[in-house]
């Protein structure tokens, strides 16, 4: 997927700044490395993910919360690509 509006990409980068370092790293890395090449469905899922509260997102990544079906695949891919 190419042709992402630079203004939208900047807004997404800003929205990835969550105030929790772990989330900042996971979300920011996704935007920088994978968002532009992601499918439309994953891009929409990522936008939806950013609407959630930090504690909920963090719970998804730790496996403490079950994400909605629309987010489950994306959460799995972000988690799998995170450095250990």
How does this structure look, described?
The model has no long low-confidence stretch (mean pLDDT 93). The protein has helices spanning 6-15, 21-33, 40-49, 54-62, 69-80. It has five helices and no strands. The longest helix has 13 residues, at 21-33. It has a single domain, classed as DNA polymerase, domain 1 (Orthogonal Bundle). Helix content is 64%, strand content 0%. The chain starts with 5 loop residues before the first helix and ends with a helix. It has 84 residues and is mostly helical.
Helix and strand layout, with pairings?
Blueprint: H1 6-15, H2 21-33, H3 40-49, H4 54-62, H5 69-80
Provide key terms for this protein:
84 residues, DNA polymerase, domain 1, 64% helix
Given the structure, what is the number of helices?
5
- Average pLDDT, rounded to a whole number, is 93
Low-confidence stretches: none
CATH level-4 homologous superfamily: Flavinator of succinate dehydrogenase
Ends apart, CA distance between termini: 28 Å
Look at the structure and give the CATH class: Mainly Alpha
Order of helices and strands: HHHHH
Number of domains: 1
Reported by name, the CATH topology is DNA polymerase, domain 1
Q: Structural class of the helices, strands and pairings?
A: mainly alpha
Number of strands: 0
**Mind telling me which CATH architecture this is?**
Orthogonal Bundle
Sheet-strand content, in percent, reads: under 5%
Q: What does the overall shape look like?
A: globular
Helix proportion range: 55-70%
The largest β sheet comes out as: none
């Amino acid at each position: 997927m190419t042709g992402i509006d630079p203004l939208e990409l900047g807004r997404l980068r800003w929205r990835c700044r969550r105030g929790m370092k772990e989330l900042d790293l996971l979300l920011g890395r996704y935007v920088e490395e994978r968002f532009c090449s992601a499918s439309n469905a994953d891009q929409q899922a990522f936008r939806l993910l950013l609407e959630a509260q930090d504690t909920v997102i963090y719970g998804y990544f730790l496996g403490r919360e079950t994400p909605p079906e629309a987010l489950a695949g994306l959460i799995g891919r972000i988690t799998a690509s995170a450095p250990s």
